[in-house]
Write a structure and sequence with these properties.
The structure is a homodimer. With about 90 residues, chain A is mainly α. Chain A has one domain: Orthogonal Bundle (434 Repressor (Amino-terminal Domain)), CATH 1.10.260. Helix content of chain A is about 60%, strand content about 0%. In chain A, helix 2 crosses helix 4. Chain A is elongated, with a radius of gyration of 13 Å. The mean pLDDT of chain A is about 90.
Chain lengths: ~90, ~90
């Protein structure tokens, strides 16, 4: 495993990249964050944190988010690959 | 979004498929669950739940698990796609 700080930085970059992919998918569907949250059964304040890369969601919610975005978790993680650590 | 029960069943199948993918990757690396847990900084009882599909891990831990398995989260989710809901 790479050095601790490197993993921390790469993990934050992973969450940011995931957020950007989720945002792109949401806007492609023409949904607002509030509409997406409602699809997942949330009354707001869910997808905002995901898209900012600040919400550390669980696999359960990753699955629900993907379903609400009419896709699957594998597809949502497509934009998150990183070059292997040095 | 598909009916509630259908999402619940599909979500459980997703966690099971993810667990199987993680197990296959671990055994391909010749690691025990204890060795994998240690790579992630856990003293056991982490990867067992993941592989049984009973641990609802966060994206942070998904990232750490992938790094410990010398891959990335996108690759680990490869075997989890499902046919679209009926």
């Amino acid at each position: 495993m790479p050095a601790h700080d490197d993993v921390k930085t790469r993990k934050a970059a992973f969450l940011m990249a995931f957020g950007e992919t989720a945002r792109a998918r949401r806007t492609a569907l023409g949904l607002t964050q509030r509409q997406l949250d409602a699809r997942m059964g949330y009354r707001g304040k869910f997808s905002g944190g995901v898209e900012r890369g600040t919400r550390n969601l669980t696999l359960d919610n990753l699955y629900l988010l993907a379903a609400a975005l009419e896709t699957d978790p594998y597809d949502l993680l497509k934009g998150t690959q990183q070059p292997p650590p040095a």
